[in-house]
Write a structure and sequence with these properties.
- With 608 residues, the chain is of the alpha/beta class.
- The protein has four domains: 99 residues; 102 residues, Periplasmic binding protein-like II (D-Maltodextrin-Binding Protein, domain 2); 300 residues, 3-Layer(aba) Sandwich (Aminopeptidase), CATH 3.40.630.190; 73 residues, Trypsin Inhibitor V, Chain A.
- 38% of the residues lie in helices and 22% in strands.
- The strands form seven sheets. The protein has a seven-stranded mixed sheet with strand order 16-11-6-7-8-17-20, with helices on both faces.
- Helix 2 packs antiparallel against helix 3.
- It is elongated and about 125 Å long.
- The protein starts with a helix and ends with a helix.
- The relative contact order is 0.09.
- About 1% of the residues have low confidence.
Length: 608
């Protein structure tokens, strides 16, 4: 009797264990929507059938007291529970890890900084405080206004609204304002400014942070899909950060901006690396500046700016920091790349601080080496443009290396490597649906190949005077951009591909694959302000009027000869597109005052 009671207890425990394990496994399998529906259904059905059979056997055993049958049933029950539990835990890990890449909350943080020590925020009086004028900017306007209202800073201080972050920082450095509200990442953001030095001492008066639901701040870039089966675009953003995890999402430096168009059915991919110095209008605030500055306004600002720049909708984004690139390449076993450099290139290792050097030629790169190749631009003949080509090479090599993943453990290692270093707006279901694309590449690799189209945006370099500094800008050719956008549209199925009816080649020349946009066009360069002090008054006036400027002349006493242009209100090399239409020239009057009639004669060269 006692033995039967023990058997009954064992049977109940094993029954409950089997039911819980199988139920957990079936639930986790059900989360894998759109993946191998037939096999998932069959597997879940088989588990349930086995569970029912074993439960029935266990119940029969502790009713009849058949010890031998109980032992066999118990072993099978433990085995079923273990298998179900392992499968369920693996799926749960994958699902949870993918979900962590699309966090529900985004953290923003603003800081009030000054070049001199000031009272604490509660006692600030009689100073000028600069904030961003764009009322949609969370770090630059919304959070600062909350601090201003909390401490009544507008009562005893002057709040000055400024159009963009560069002008904001420049006014602080030039002493035009006493303090500014800026993103907490300001040191990383402004390190490339000419008058911003790493040794500059900033005093942080107060810091204020807030967490926002991603659905609130990225509502315009939230996907409504549940499965990726149609052509889509994804914006890859390389973040200028060496941290293990991607930090606050409010602002960052967009070191890499790459737009991909992908057709899952044909496995066609078109890659467009957008040079970081490309001069274009921001979708947030409307400023004309370098496109990587859009990242200072957050992910939403960057995506909307890229959409405005290309005229294409961005379906998804994936943000990865430097640390993540290294770990991802290592996780797939390294990448094979033809290193195309004029000679040896060297960069500091992002993770370990040591220097890594690469020589030209085809070679296998580990994670840190691939990152060096992707980041280096200083000694390259084409600078950032050639770096963009290198980044496309690494992405292409990564895609090819995915074919070598053959086990669940390999896949889990990749997820572990990048989970903390990648953020995206893809839902877990959408990321899982990429399985079908990977399946075509892995299982049918002999008959199905990725067809990757590369692009190259051409244009010209232009140094301009902006915000008190000379700044390098890349002015793109519109025709080159149009050609690239057309290539992206072909991949997306929005435009018919032009059929090439004629093809010629020479055995003496190597075949070069088509690169969209890689042509130089006869487009006029954007006009910049000339140094009119080097011209005579008549010539200067004619130049200004020819460029659509209204000329105002102020005569001043000076030691210069009469009619000499002493200064101009629009700075030399300022982009006329950004300049005022009113130009004031200060002109020397010489020793004697000049009448209005004499002024007219000097400008027109006419004598009555």
């Amino acid at each position: 009797m006692k033995k039967r009671k023990i058997n009954k207890i064992i049977g109940i425990i094993l029954t409950l264990l089997s039911i819980i394990s199988v139920s957990f496994c079936v639930y986790e399998i059900s989360l894998l929507a759109n993946i191998e529906t037939f096999y998932r259904t069959m597997g879940s059905t088989l588990l349930i059938v086995l569970l029912v059979a074993l439960v029935y056997s266990l119940i029969d055993c502790f009713k009849t007291g058949k010890t031998k049958k109980l032992i066999i049933s118990a072993i099978l029950s433990v085995l079923l529970s273990a298998i179900a539990l392992i499968i369920g835990l693996v799926i749960n890990k994958v699902y949870t890890t993918l979900g962590s890449m699309n966090a529900d909350d985004v953290n923003y943080k603003t800081v009030l900084i000054s070049l001199k020590e000031l009272d604490n925020v509660e006692n600030l009086k009689g100073i000028k405080i600069g904030i961003i004028s764009n009322e949609e900017d969370i770090n630059g306007y919304i959070l600062p206004m909350e601090v201003i209202e909390k401490y009544n800073l507008s009562n005893d201080n002057e709040i000055i609204k400024i159009s963009d972050s560069i002008t904001l920082m420049s006014k602080l450095l030039n002493g035009e304002v006493d303090a500014i509200f800026i993103s907490s990442n300001y040191k990383s953001m402004f390190q490339s400014l000419d008058n911003f030095e790493e040794t500059t001492k900033f005093y942080e008066i107060t810091t204020y942070g807030k967490s926002y639901r991603k659905s609130e701040v990225e509502k315009d870039i939230t996907s409504t899909r549940t499965e990726i089966s149609e052509p889509f675009t994804i914006l890859l953003l390389g973040i200028d950060s060496y941290e293990e995890e991607i930090g606050d999402g409010g602002s960052y430096n967009g070191d890499t901006i790459m737009l991909l168009a992908v057709d899952p059915s044909t496995l066609n991919v078109t890659m467009f690396s957008i040079p970081r110095d490309t001069y274009t209008y921001m979708a947030c605030g409307g400023a004309l500046t370098k496109i990587n500055h859009a990242a200072w306004g957050g992910t939403n600002c960057m995506i909307k700016t890229v959409e405005q720049f290309t005229g294409l909708n961005v379906d998804y984004y994936a943000m990865v920091n430097f640390h993540g690139v290294s770990k991802l390449v290592d996780a797939v076993g390294g990448v094979d790349v033809d290193v195309q450099t004029p000679g040896e290139i060297c960069e500091n290792d992002a993770r370990h601080g040591s220097q890594i050097c690469l020589n030209p030629g085809y070679q296998h790169l580990n994670g840190d080496e691939a990152l060096v190749y992707s980041r280096h631009r200083k000694t390259l003949p084409l600078g950032d443009f050639q770096r963009g080509q290198h980044q496309q090479q690494v992405v292409e090599a990564l895609i090819s290396q995915v074919k070598n993943l053959r086990s669940v453990n390999d896949f889990l290692n990749v997820l572990d490597a990048v989970s903390n270093s990648i953020k995206t707006n893809m839902s877990t279901e959408e990321m899982l649906s990429l399985y079908n694309i990977a399946k075509n590449v892995l299982v049918q690799s002999d008959s199905v190949q990725l067809n990757i189209t590369k692009t190259f945006l051409t244009g010209y370099s232009l140094y301009i005077w902006v915000n008190g500094n000379y700044s390098y800008t890349f002015q793109y050719y519109k025709q080159s951009l149009d050609e690239i956008v057309d290539a992206l549209k072909v991949t997306l199925g929005q435009k018919e591909k032009e059929v090439v009816k004629e093809f010629s080649f020479s055995l003496n020349e190597p075949y070069e694959k088509y690169i969209a946009g890689d042509n130089y066009y006869n487009e006029e360069q954007k006009p910049i302000m000339a140094d009119l002090t080097k011209l005579g008054l008549s010539a200067a006036t004619a130049w200004a009027e020819a460029n659509g400027l209204n000329v105002n002349i102020e005569y001043v006493d000076s030691e210069y000869p009469s009619g000499t242009i002493i200064s101009q209100s629009i700075h030399e090399d300022e982009l006329l597109e950004l300049a005022s239409s009113e130009l004031t020239l200060q002109v020397s009057s010489g020793a004697n005052s000049i009448t209005g009639q004499t002024l007219l004669e000097e400008i027109t060269g006419v004598n009555e």
